[in-house]
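To: structure desk
From: M.T.
Subject: fold request, one chain
Message: Could you run this one when you get a chance? Sequence is below, nothing fancy, just the single chain.
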Amino acid sequence: MGDRAATPPADRRAGPARTPRSGERRADRGGPVRDWSDHRRLGPLWSVLRSELPEIELRAPEPWFVPGGGRRSDIRFALFRRIIEIRDGQLSLRPHLHPGVPGWVGEVVRPAGTEEFAVVVEAAAIAAALEAARAGRRFPVGPAGAWVPHPLAAGLREEAAWLVEVARAYRRSPVMAHVRRRMRAELAAPPPGA
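Reply: Done. Structure tokens follow.
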């Protein structure tokens, strides 16, 4: 019996749990802390969209989640709702998407075709579409040359990770000022055929 007590159980011999390396994708880590962090990081983008498009906010009949005071399981639902509301905002802005946004981003960001470029284009499309929506300007939506948003990710974690990067680019990328200037110049010009 003395020999058995000296031998650690198999699960304790494996060593400490592996911590994620800095190069791993954010989507690979999880839990309520990550959900809360993603929910918070999506807040500024969500707030801009909600202030311009209040209809995207899904109204609950009663307060179901209070930040800092809700149940732990509620944060996952809150994150899910925030993602849905952001995507609803993007759908509502679709008639206001200018087909030139990827080209405008390409004037500042190189190389095209990278994930970073796609993130900045999605953020810039939101910024430009908000400008056009405020001005009441619509652009034709068609398959030829039309920009298509990033496809929805398969899971909540991946979608949250993608939109967190879009929200960061929307807030911090200097490309947003360039795209807004281009959009305002486009809006100041008479519409084609007018």
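Reply (cont.): Residues 4-28 have pLDDT under 50 and may be disordered. Let me know if you need anything else for the meeting.
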